[in-house]
Amino acid sequence: MTRLTADLWVSAYLARLRLVNIPAFVTSKGDATAGAVLVKLNTLDGTAVAYQRSFDLITGDRRWIELAAGAESEVDAALARQGQFDPDLWVIEVEDRQGRHLLDEPGLSE
Q1: pLDDT 10s digits, 25-63
Q2: Domain limits at 34?
Q3: Looking at the DSSP assignment, which residues form a beta bridge with residue 71?
Q4: Which of 10, 18, 64, 105 is found 20 to 30 A from 53 (Cα to Cα)?
Q5: What values do phi and psi take at 41, rounded to 5?
Q6: What sign has the CA pseudo-torsion 51, 55, 59, 62?
Q7: Is residue 34 domain-resident?
């Protein structure tokens, strides 16, 4: 199976969010080819959730799991720590009061 490059996936994700009027922007641009992508959901009430992609070695399943949740400053600190370990990291910030991120939708959830 061919994998999408990180920059192509990010562009497609941002376009998908725009289609349903969910504001999002790249706060950290990583390696265009193989950088890992984290998604921060900011609900604009002082709290946030960060998601990372998980890969199950036994089943081969890929899914988005929660990396950090709570006060936005705590989530930002967790993202900063991840950035120290991985300079190729992409971070996308999604802003939605309803908590929508679309990561559970077909094409994004797999």
Answers
A1: 999 999 988 889 999 999 999 999 999 998 877 877 788
A2: 6-95
A3: 47
A4: 18
A5: -100, 110
A6: positive
A7: yes
What number of residues does the chain have?
A: 110
Name the residue with tokens 């390696």.
31
Does the CA dihedral 29-5-88-49 come out positive or negative? positive
Backbone torsions φ then ψ of 73, nearest 5 degrees: -65, -35
Tokens of 70: 């709570």
The one-letter amino acid code at 69 reads A
Q: What is the pLDDT of residue 63?
A: 86
Distance CA 89, CA 75 (A): 15
H/E element, 72 = helix 72-85
Strand order in the sheet with 24-28: 24-28, 90-95, 37-42, 47-55, 62-71
- Here the CATH number for the domain that contains residue 74 is 3.40.1530.20
In the numeric block, which tokens belong to residue 7? 């920059």
